[in-house]
Amino acid sequence: MLSVVPRPVTVRAPAKVNLHLAVGDLRPDGYHELTTVFQALSLTDQVEIFPAKELTIRVRGEGARDVPTDRGNLVWKAATRLAHLAGREPAVEIAIDKSIPVAGGMAGGSADAAATLLGLNALWHLELSRTELAALALELGSDVPFALHGATAIGTGRGEKLLPVLSRNTFHWVIAFAKGGLSTPDVFRELDRLRGAGQPPRIGDAEKLMQSLAAGDARQLAGLLGNDLQAAALSLKPELRRTLRAGITAGALAGIVSGSGPTCAFLCETSDAAIEVSAELAGAGVCRSLRVATGPAPGARVVDADASG
Ligand code: C5P
């Protein structure tokens, strides 16, 4: 009897930057109430999933040495949860090719987990809907639902209640990777500490920022970017102030710490300007490496799969 060996599935998932990240109070469950506007970027990780005897994870690319290949990896949790739901063994090899910085505030681990959910859904022909996958995604982490969603969206609750945001035009970003990472819980804790000491001020609502996105106006958007976690990230990594200053000197419209940091994102007027800012920043020696990216970009998507089923 002929048996058909399923082909591997390849999925790409995007990094995110928070254009607006308003952190509310600490909830009894240990999370903070958020209002955040996410934008997915053209900076993506690629995840390939092969049928195998047992679950294994391989990682290569950006920061691969710092990524666990066991149950400490969110991808492991994603595969075992989905297998359990489907009543099967997680018998797959998952190869992650990283471009998104590790512990960088760009939701790289969340992107890999979202890619795994989508890839296994395709490989195993589970036909779970986007809504079902989003519910599973939230069990894995606050940013995993947005990695599935992509584009530009406003998130409330833990950041997982998503509504699409109209965004015209393509925005041009320079992404500055820092030396070393920051732990997200540490940055939230530092914000609570700073607030306990009476500082820093909270950013306002996202209305004007959403209008600038609808208008596709990068200059207007630049003046409205805001991140409540930035003060905490700068408090833990003061050298980021130099990086942010250097980006403005180099000609960026604005610079912000991405999410909980330490990656910094610089909004530029054009793609040429982004290339110039990136070159200047490389010369200034204020970060580990640089990428140019555009947003919005699509959410996690299968780019190659078994076409027989
Ligand atoms: O959901 P996730 O596992 O990505 O969150 C990591 C940590 O970030 C949480 O344990 C919590 O300390 C912090 N966090 C928070 N409020 C949120 C999201 C994350 O305090 N809305």
From TrEMBL:
Q: Which UniProt keywords apply?
A: ATP-binding, Isoprene biosynthesis, Kinase, Nucleotide-binding, Transferase
GHMP kinase N-terminal domain residues: 73-150
List of catalytic residues: K16, D143
Supply the SUPFAM superfamilies for this chain. Answer: GHMP Kinase, C-terminal domain, Ribosomal protein S5 domain 2-like
Q: What is its EC number?
A: 2.7.1.148
Binding locations of ATP:
P101, V102, A103, G104, G105, M106, A107, G108, G109, S110, A111
Determine the domain of life of the protein's source.
Bacteria
**Any Gene Ontology biological process:** terpenoid biosynthetic process
Domain spans labelled GHMP kinase C-terminal: 210-282
The UniProt GO MF terms for this protein read: 4-(cytidine 5'-diphospho)-2-C-methyl-D-erythritol kinase activity; ATP binding
User: What Gene3D superfamilies does UniProt report for this protein, alphabetically?
Assistant: 3.30.230.10, GHMP kinase, C-terminal domain (3.30.70.890)
Q: What metabolic or biological pathway is this protein involved in?
A: Isoprenoid biosynthesis; isopentenyl diphosphate biosynthesis via DXP pathway; isopentenyl diphosphate from 1-deoxy-D-xylulose 5-phosphate: step 3/6
A Pfam family cross-referenced in the UniProt record is GHMP_kinases_N
Q: Where are the transmembrane segments?
A: none
Reactions it catalyzes: 4-CDP-2-C-methyl-D-erythritol + ATP = 4-CDP-2-C-methyl-D-erythritol 2-phosphate + ADP + H(+)
Q: Which family does it belong to?
A: Belongs to the GHMP kinase family. IspE subfamily.
**Which PANTHER family does the record match to this protein?**
4-DIPHOSPHOCYTIDYL-2-C-METHYL-D-ERYTHRITOL KINASE, CHLOROPLASTIC
Q: What does this protein do?
A: Catalyzes the phosphorylation of the position 2 hydroxy group of 4-diphosphocytidyl-2C-methyl-D-erythritol.
Which NCBIfam families does the record cross-reference, listed alphabetically?
Answer: ispE, PRK03188.1
- Which protein is depicted? 4-diphosphocytidyl-2-C-methyl-D-erythritol kinase
The scientific name of the source species is Antrihabitans stalagmiti
Lineage summary: Bacteria, Bacillati, Actinomycetota, Actinomycetes, Mycobacteriales
Name of the encoding gene: ispE
